[in-house]
Design goal:
Blueprint lengths: L3 H13 L7 H14 L3 H10 L14 H4 L13 E3 L8 H4 L11 H13 L4 H6 L4 H16 L4 E3 L9 E4 L2 E4 H17 L4 H13 L6 H5 L9 H16 L7 E3 L1 H29 L2
Helix pairs in contact: 2-8, 2-9, 2-10, 2-13, 3-13, 6-8, 6-12, 8-13, 9-13
């Protein structure tokens, strides 16, 4: 079966490393569920064909795969985020898309461009084979990283590593600001609002996509100059949200409770929705 070894590694890492998932497992699964429900017939068929056998056609079931293999693919860690100078609240690709050693294009925006380009070769199987692309892995990376780039603190400030060094209390639990945005806000929403958690969260987001945010969706889906995907736009939105919303009013050892949760939850929900809509649009563009 395809991907057997990766599957085994992934299952092991689920138990050894339960807190390595950006947006949390449910957040990433929500993005992929929204996306798969919006795929064209052709794109859905192509996605199912590329998915590993153990996913049984369900993109959401492997949407956190890219986090689980960080310890196998050490080179992939910088592909999940962008560090922006502390003085900046904007994203500039030439300035910001590089890893800690200064290697260019090694950031989440560059990775989305790269894996989109790899998947575009799927229309020419000989080209894909000659380039030795693993198109299954390209799909899984792209699907995950589209979620990452929409998490505001994955495009955060360099000195605090996107909130990873800012200690806070989420109600009574000690954590870091980055994790509040990765998982705590979503977990609290599920605990307080939904019985079946993930399914009801997805239903609520999809309801808002088709009703509350319906007039915004065409703009979310569109790219300048008819390009396949627009990670620079997504990253620019995230750093603005990081400055204006995520970091705002937070100091070292802040206690974040109802006021922070209730005022930041709308941003979390709309970023999850945008990620799902844009992942679907990207895959539809690739497999049109």
């Amino acid at each position: 079966m395809r991907f057997t070894n990766v599957c085994l590694v992934s299952l092991i890492l689920v138990f050894l490393c339960p807190n390595v998932h950006a947006w949390g497992i449910d957040g990433h699964a929500a993005v992929c569920k929204i996306a798969q429900s919006r795929l064209s017939e052709g794109a859905n068929a192509a996605v199912k064909d590329l998915l590993p056998d153990y996913a049984e056609g369900d993109l959401a079931s492997v949407c956190s795969w890219a986090d689980r293999v960080k310890f196998r693919y050490h080179w992939s860690s910088p592909l999940h985020y962008i560090n922006v100078p502390d003085s900046a609240c904007d994203f500039q690709y030439a300035r910001d898309c590089k890893d800690e050693d200064g290697v260019k294009d090694r950031c989440v925006a560059g990775a989305i461009n790269n894996y989109t380009s790899q998947l575009l070769t799927s229309k020419d199987i000989l080209a894909a084979q000659s380039a030795q692309y693993n198109l299954t892995e390209a799909l899984l990376f792209l699907s995950h990283l589209m979620g990452d780039i929409h998490q505001p603190l994955h495009v955060g400030h360099t000195s605090d590593k996107g909130g990873n060094t800012i200690d806070v209390h989420w109600y009574r639990r000690k954590t870091v600001l980055h994790h509040v945005w990765d998982g705590s806000i979503i977990e609290t929403e599920e605990e307080t609002s939904y019985d079946t958690q993930l399914d009801e969260l997805v239903d609520a987001l999809e309801h808002n996509i088709t009703r509350k945010w319906a007039d915004q969706v065409p703009e979310w889906e569109s790219c300048s100059r008819d390009t396949t995907t627009c990670p620079n736009i997504y990253a620019s939105e995230s750093i603005k949200a990081a400055c204006d919303i995520a970091y705002k009013g937070v100091d070292e050892d802040s206690t974040l409770e109802d006021e922070y949760f209730e005022s930041r939850l709308p941003t979390v929900n709309i970023r999850l929705a945008q990620a799902g809509v844009r992942l679907a649009a990207t895959l539809n563009n690739i497999f049109r």
